[in-house]
């Protein structure tokens, strides 16, 4: 019973029961579509990088490799993700609050600025004289429109943040919801708070760098650049973390009818992110000169690991909320019946759960260990670093976004997902590929293989370093994993575009796909041993033991090195 | 009744917290505090730390220091590449290494078990100092001279590779340290 009359700018979506503002719907759609287009571009560049770092293939010449790597970094790590995040914050602030979007005109300005900015930077890189990597550390210099594009993109994203806040204000004023914000919207608000800090940092450093590139400023101090740039570069990944955790909670609700185990705990954990997550920017500066150990220790630990604590909490409460819901729905036997009986063939769920496991075990554990001030010395700028953040950003964020997309296609685009048989496998293909890449290439990183490096054989060099033969095998297996992930990513893009263009229209009388609230079920006595979620607790302890062991393994290795003081 | 995506119950702030969560928070918090203390403690109990001694310096001035250092202690030209001097400073002395596109100069010959104050800086753009196969990694920028006190505990050949992207010749940037018994 879709209502689209001139009087009502809303429609009631039959699949989700959500009341959706049509202007917001158009904006979410355009941002999501642009995101997927850029994912395709970034993924293609990633394929070229993988095929070049695969020792036996070594596809591109050096200059093309560094160009492809610059494209891959900027497009896959920033453009795809921020476009999708704008789609997410527009969606949750309007559809979940039954609210109209604030200032749609400004929202369209956001779209245009981000498209023009991304295109400008992309063209600058393809012109060949801006292969400076995503980080663009001066005095390495790119063309002026490389920086200008990024600035326009950032301004666009900032406008998106204010549209989100404006929408929250309208929802409150017009009383479209009662009581406190839903947890997901609260999480999105946390992400937006971090985004504003992040984008402001980007502007603060990229504007003078742009002025330097056109000759108006004489020089940019390399240390100042790195300190401020990373408040943008690292923090933008923190927006991802907060957004994809919100998506985990959201999908737990959609599929299982779950609600948070404790609103108080989950909200406090989100609050810890606002307070402490930004400190993580220093992870990239731990081996740099001129910064004191006190400053490094305080920041790299997010002031006593308070942001790590928050992530550990979400890592338990998200699967915990699923366990509680499943048990209330009747899957109360043993420790893991709730997990075995989960809908593993539904890409919305499998994508979300693989994202959760990958982010925790691969991205999370390594992130905590490598950001220890001293351990960083054996990891800084090795290929371990990209392996780690493929665990967080590709295996975590990107996979969570893919999972949510399988829900948004029928609900927002009102199309059925094409090729459901393949869609079922797509998250597995991408998730397994990216985690093979991450884990195996981390091994190469611990043996010192550098990141952003065209030729580790040092062909023709008098001082060539000889590696143990093992690293060539690791780079080969790792890059095969990367190629699998690209195939999974391409399949995703095809399914999304195909579904939007020629997927079957969802009928107006379609049945609701959102699970009924689990706490309405009859099962009150759940869990075992006084724990409502004993299975999740055991899984969390597995993560904990892995983290502790891995932490000390790294110190054991560190202790064998030359004495450094 | 509700979901994670609907507004919470009115009393959400006073609802009791379930046992699973409380126990996990205690374990996680204890571990977080341990890691914080351990990282600080490693400055005393560990032998691998950065002392973060650093100075601002003009790249030209640093180049001069490296030149003087090289002229003073060169013992031979390298067998693999005769254009490169191998420098052998006395134990305990200051050692100056310069990164520039695309080389680490000069090559060093030092002694196992002896301590050296190794200065590193760049003459042009940011570079990486990655000592292999030890896998010890630092960053060098232009305008900043950092000092790391190093005591090799193994002998043999150690290669320096650049692991901070510095231009199209980045992958050809190398250096070397020979450590004698």
Can you tell me about this structure?
The complex is a heterodimer of chains A (565) and B (181). Chain A is built from 15 helices and 3 strands. Chain A is an all-alpha fold. Chain A starts with 9 loop residues before the first strand and ends with a strand. Chain B has a single domain (53-180), classed as Immunoglobulin-like (Sandwich), CATH 2.60.40.420. Chain B has helices at residues 19-45, 59-73; strands at residues 53-56, 74-77, 85-87, 94-100, 103-105, 107-111, 116-122, 127-132, 136-140, 144-151, 156-161, 174-180. Chain B is elongated and about 80 Å long. Chain B has 2 helices and 12 strands, in the order αβαβββββββββββ. At the A-B interface, α2, α5, α6, α7 and α8 of A face α1, β8, β9, β10 and β12 of B.
The gist of it:
The complex is a heterodimer of chains A (565) and B (181). By secondary structure, chain A is mainly alpha-helical.
Proportion in helices of chain A: 55-70%
Query: Strand order across the biggest sheet of chain B?
Result: 2-3-6-12-11-8-9
Give the tally of β-strands of chain A: 3
For the largest interface in this structure, which chains are involved and how many residues does each contribute? A-B, 113 and 93 residues
Query: How many DSSP H or I helices of chain B?
Result: 2
Write down the overall geometry of chain A.
globular
Low-confidence stretches of chain B: none
Strand fraction of chain B equals 35-45%
Q: How many DSSP helices of chain A?
A: 15
Main features:
heterodimer; A: 565 residues; mainly alpha; two-stranded antiparallel ribbon; globular; disordered N terminus; B: 181 residues; alpha+beta; Immunoglobulin-like; seven-stranded mixed β-sheet; five-stranded mixed β-sheet; 12 strands; 23% helix; elongated
Write the layout of secondary structure elements.
The complex is a heterodimer of chains A (565) and B (181).
Chain A: E1 10-12, E2 19-21, H1 22-53, H2 62-94, H3 104-126, H4 144-173, H5 183-213, H6 222-256, H7 263-276, H8 293-300, H9 302-328, H10 337-340, H11 347-370, H12 384-412, H13 420-446, H14 470-502, H15 534-558, E3 563-564
Chain B: H1 19-45, E1 53-56, H2 59-73, E2 74-77, E3 85-87, E4 94-100, E5 103-105, E6 107-111, E7 116-122, E8 127-132, E9 136-140, E10 144-151, E11 156-161, E12 174-180
Parallel strand pairs in B: 3-6, 4-7, 6-12
Antiparallel strand pairs in B: 1-10, 2-3, 4-5, 7-10, 8-9, 8-11, 11-12
């Amino acid at each position: 019973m879709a209502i689209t009359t001139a009087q009502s700018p809303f429609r009631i979506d039959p699949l989700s029961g959500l009341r959706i503002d049509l202007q917001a719907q158009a904006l979410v759609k355009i941002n999501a579509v642009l995101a997927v287009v850029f994912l395709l571009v970034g993924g293609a560049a990633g394929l070229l990088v993988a095929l070049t770092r695969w020792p036996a293939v070594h596809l591109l010449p050096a200059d093309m490799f560094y160009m492809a790597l610059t494209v891959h970094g900027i497009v896959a790590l920033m453009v795809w993700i921020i476009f999708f995040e704008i789609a997410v914050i527009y969606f949750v602030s309007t559809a979940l609050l039954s609210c109209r979007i604030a200032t749609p005109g400004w929202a369209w300005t956001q779209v245009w600025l981000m498209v023009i900015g991304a295109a400008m930077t992309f063209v600058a890189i393809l012109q060949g004289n801006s292969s400076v990597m995503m980080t663009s550390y001066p005095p390495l210099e790119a063309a002026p429109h490389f920086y200008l594009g990024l600035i326009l993109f950032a301004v666009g994203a900032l406008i998106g943040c204010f549209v989100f806040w404006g929408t929250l204000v309208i929802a409150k004023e017009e009383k479209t919801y009662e009581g406190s914000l839903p947890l997901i919207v609260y999480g999105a608000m946390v992400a937006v708070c971090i985004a504003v800090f992040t984008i402001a940092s980007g502007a603060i450093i990229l504007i003078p760098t742009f002025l330097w590139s056109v000759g108006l400023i004489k020089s940019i101090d390399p240390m100042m650049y790195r300190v401020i740039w990373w408040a943008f570069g690292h923090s933008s990944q923190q927006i991802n973390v907060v957004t994809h955790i919100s998506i985990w909670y959201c999908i737990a609700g959609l599929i299982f009818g779950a609600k948070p185990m404790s609103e108080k705990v989950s909200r406090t954990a989100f609050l810890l992110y606002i307070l402490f997550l930004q400190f993580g920017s220093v992870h990239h500066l731990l081996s740099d000169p001129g910064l004191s150990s006190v400053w490094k220790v305080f920041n790299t630990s997010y002031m006593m690991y308070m942001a790590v604590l928050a992530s550990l909490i979400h890592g338990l409460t998200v699967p915990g909320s699923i366990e509680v819901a499943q048990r209330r729905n009747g899957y109360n036997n043993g420790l893991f019946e709730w997990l075995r009986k989960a809908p593993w063939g539904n890409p919305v769920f499998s994508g979300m759960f693989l994202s959760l496991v990958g982010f925790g075990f691969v991205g999370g554990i390594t992130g905590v260990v490598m950001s220890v001030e001293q351990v960083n010395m054996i990891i800084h700028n090795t290929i371990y670093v990209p392996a780690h953040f493929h665990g967080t950003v590709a295996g975590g964020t990107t996979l969570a976004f893919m999972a949510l997309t399988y829900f948004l296609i029928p609900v927002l685009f009102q199309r059925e997902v094409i090729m459901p048989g393949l869609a079922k496998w797509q998250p597995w293909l991408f998730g397994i590929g990216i985690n093979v890449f991450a884990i195996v290439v981390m091994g190469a990183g611990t043996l010192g293989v550098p990141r952003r490096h065209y030729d580790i054989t040092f062909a023709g060099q008098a001082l060539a370093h000889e590696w143990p033969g093992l690293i060539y095998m690791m780079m080969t297996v790792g890059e095969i994993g990367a190629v699998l992930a690209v195939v999974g990513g391409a399949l995703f893009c095809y399914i999304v575009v195909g579904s939007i263009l020629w997927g079957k229209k969802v009928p107006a009388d379609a049945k609701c796909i959102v699970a009924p609230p689990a706490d309405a079920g009859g099962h009150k006595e759940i869990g075992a041993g006084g724990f409502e979620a004993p299975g999740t607790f055991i899984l969390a302890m597995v993560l904990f033991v892995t983290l502790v062991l891995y932490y000390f393994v790294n110190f054991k290795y560190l202790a064998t090195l030359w004495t450094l003081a | 009744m509700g979901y994670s995506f609907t507004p919470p119950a009115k009393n959400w702030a006073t609802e009791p917290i379930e046992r699973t969560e409380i126990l996990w928070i205690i374990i996680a918090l204890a571990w977080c505090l341990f890691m914080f203390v351990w990282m600080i403690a490693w400055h005393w109990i560990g032998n691998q730390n950065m002392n973060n001694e650093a100075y601002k310096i003009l790249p030209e001035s640093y180049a001069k220091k490296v030149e003087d250092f090289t002229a003073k202690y060169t013992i031979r030209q390298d067998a693999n590449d005769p254009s490169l001097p191998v420098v052998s400073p006395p134990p305990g002395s200051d050692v100056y290494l310069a990164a520039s596109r695309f080389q680490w100069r000069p090559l060093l010959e030092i002694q196992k078990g002896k301590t050296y104050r190794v200065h590193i800086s760049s003459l042009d753009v940011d570079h990486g100092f990655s000592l292999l196969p030890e896998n010890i990694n630092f960053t060098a920028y232009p305008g900043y001279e950092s000092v790391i006190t190093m005591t090799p505990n193994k002998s043999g050949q150690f290669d320096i590779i650049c692991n901070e992207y510095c231009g199209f010749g980045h992958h050809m940037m190398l250096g070397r340290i020979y450590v004698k018994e």
